[in-house]
Amino acid sequence: MRSAGLGGKPGSAAQSVHSFSEVDGDPMDDVMRKAEELEVLVAELEALDRRRVGLGARLVDLEHFFRRAGCPELSQQALDAYVTTYAGRVLELADGMRG
């Protein structure tokens, strides 16, 4: 992924970076640093997503447990947390990607 689109072909990122006035130093070094930053950020986001899915699954498990145990208030609390914080945020993010 690191070198994708940086092959030096006309119109590629490596060629067009010379037109950016914000780039300091060697433009190719700046592009490579930003490509590495992108890789790190994607890996962090993937790890965060796995953790988020795990937390959502735990909320669902707790909601089921409390409902079977006859604790409607705790069941509702877990369900509310799932719907508003977990699922609600997923829907909010999806909405943002559409607009």
Your description of this structure?
The structure is a single chain. It contains three helices and no strands. The chain is mainly alpha-helical and 99 residues long. The protein has one domain (13-98). Helix 2 packs antiparallel against helix 3. The chain is elongated. The two termini are 27 Å apart. Mean pLDDT is 80; it is low at 1-19.
Task: Please specify the SSE layout and strand pairing.
Elements: H1 13-16, H2 27-68, H3 72-98
Give short descriptive properties of this protein:
99 residues; 0% strand; elongated; single chain; mainly alpha
Give a quick precis of the structure:
The chain is mainly α and 99 residues long. 74% of the residues lie in helices and 0% in strands. It is built from three helices and no strands.
Tell me the number of structural domains: 1
Strand composition percent: under 5%
Q: Based on helices, strands and strand pairing, what is the structural class?
A: mainly alpha
Largest sheet, if any?
A: none
- Please tally the β strands and state the result: 0
* Gyration radius, rounded: 22 Å
Estimate percent helicity: over 70%
Secondary-structure element sequence?
HHH
Tertiary shape: elongated
Let me know the average pLDDT. 80
Q: Can you count the helices? A: 3
**Which residue ranges are poorly predicted, with pLDDT under 50 across at least 5 consecutive positions?**
1-19
The separation of the N and C termini measures: 27 Å
